[in-house]
Amino acid sequence: MKRLHVLLPMLLLLCVLLPVSAQGSKAAASDEVVLTMGSWRTDDVEQMNRLLAAYKKLAPEVTIKFQPTNPPDYNATLRLQLDSGTGPDLMYARSYAAGQELFNAGYFADCTDIPGLMDNFTASNLAPWQMSDGTMFAVPFAAVSHAVYYNKDIFKKEGLAIPDDWESFLSLCNTLENRGYTPLANGLADEWDILETFFFGLLPNYIGGADMRVKYENGELPLNDKNFIAAYQAMADVARYCPDGFESVTYNDSQVLFNSQKAVMFVDGSWTAGVYKDASFDWGLFAIPAPKGKNTAICFHPDMAITMNRATKYPEEAKAFLAWLCTEEGATTASQNLPSGYFPMINFPIELEDPHANEFLSLNTGKETDARFVWPKLMNLYSPMNQAVIKVMKGDITAKQAADSVSDLM
Amino acid sequence: MRPKHARHFPWLLYLAPALLVYTVFMAFPLIDSLRLSLFSGNSQATRIFVGLDNFKRLFTDPEISTRYWGAFFNTWKFFFVHLIVQNGLGIFFAVLLTHETMKGRHIYQTIIFIPTTFAVLITGYLWKLMLNPVWAGDFLVSIGLPFLKHPYLGDTNTALWAVSLVSCWQWLGIPTMMFVAALRNISTELLEAARLEGAGNGKTFWYIKLPLIKPVVGIIAVLTFVNNFNAFDIVFAMENVNGAPEYSTDLIGTLFYRYGIAGQHPIGIPDAGLGAAIATITFLLLLVLVIPTLKNTQRSA
Question: Which of A199, A408, B20, B91 has the greatest number of CB atoms lying within 10 Å of its CB?
Answer without folding.
Answer: A199
